[in-house]
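Incident log, support desk, overnight shift.

02:14 A customer reports that sequence design results differ from what the structure should imply. Their input is reproduced verbatim below. On-call engineer (initials T.W.) acknowledged and began investigating.
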């Protein structure tokens, strides 16, 4: 039982970070009906940038988020303006997959040339530090990463729920045609939404680099997990992505501890298939929700 509870705690902490990574992916789909398969590559890009800032400028990875998030927000808006906005409306969804996949490959290639393909990890002075509560250990890095993820997700929720931009997003998600008739600029909402999605990847990448070793090709495994999360939660549902992240984070951790780490990655797809057999639209899919 002690081992199970320890795995449960670890799974919750991992789930919070997965939720931050997948929030941008599901937000972009909700606004634009675009599956950004470059989201994993953006997480890895941010991990490398945070690593470089720590190695050369001695900026703490958590503090680097304050610099990375705005910079990669601008990168996201730029990608949207240059590549995604110009796609023809009749095949934009299909072509966006090719465009974002090409973006992911370009990022991987640049990182491979710049950093080589060796594994890297951002190792801080507190990397091995932990707290003990009631006999259960909690790594400081994972705890701080979880808290930052929660804070950013709450901020994202407040932006979507309380601001004019958030109302525009919700209107676009529910009915794009009606939103345009009400004066909502779909192009502006899409660009800002895509930028926010990449900014969340930047924050998640800085945390990811402190917890897991990474290399330029790490985005392949990462995007498969993120896609599993957004499909399980319901495409376009931010709340669904958070719940699915927790379910899969806990399942991964428990399986790794109680059965074998080899099966921990596979459990993502087992849980996904099991739930979709009963709810093809996901936990909070479009048939069950009326808003993001």
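02:41 Re-run completed on a clean worker. Output:
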């Amino acid at each position: 039982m002690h081992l199970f509870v320890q795995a449960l705690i670890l799974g919750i902490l991992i789930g919070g970070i997965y939720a931050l990574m997948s929030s941008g992916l599901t937000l972009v789909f909700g606004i634009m009906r675009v599956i950004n398969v470059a989201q994993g590559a953006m997480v890895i890009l941010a991990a490398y940038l945070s690593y470089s800032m720590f190695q050369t400028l001695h900026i703490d990875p958590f503090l680097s988020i304050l610099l990375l998030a705005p910079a990669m927000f601008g990168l996201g808006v730029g990608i949207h303006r240059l590549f995604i906005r110009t796609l023809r409306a009749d095949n934009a969804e299909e072509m966006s997959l090719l465009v974002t996949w090409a973006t992911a490959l370009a990022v991987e290639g640049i990182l491979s040339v710049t950093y080589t393909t060796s594994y890297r990890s951002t190792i801080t002075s507190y990397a091995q530090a932990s707290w003990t509560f009631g006999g259960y250990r909690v790594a400081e890095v994972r705890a701080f990463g979880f808290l930052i993820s929660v804070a950013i997700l709450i901020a994202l929720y407040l932006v979507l729920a309380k601001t004019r931009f958030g109302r525009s997003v919700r209107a676009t998600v529910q009915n794009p045609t009606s939103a345009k008739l009400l004066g909502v600029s779909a192009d502006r909402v899409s660009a800002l939404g895509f930028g926010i999605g990449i900014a969340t990847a930047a924050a998640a990448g800085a945390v990811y680099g402190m917890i897991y070793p990474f290399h330029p090709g790490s985005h392949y495994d990462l995007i498969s997990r993120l896609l599993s999360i957004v499909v399980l939660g319901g495409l376009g549902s931010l709340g669904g992505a958070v719940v699915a992240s927790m379910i899969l984070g806990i399942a991964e951790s428990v399986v790794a501890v109680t059965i074998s780490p080899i099966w921990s990655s596979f459990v993502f797809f087992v849980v996904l298939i099991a739930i979709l057999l009963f709810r093809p639209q996901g936990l909070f899919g479009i048939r069950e929700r009326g808003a993001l």
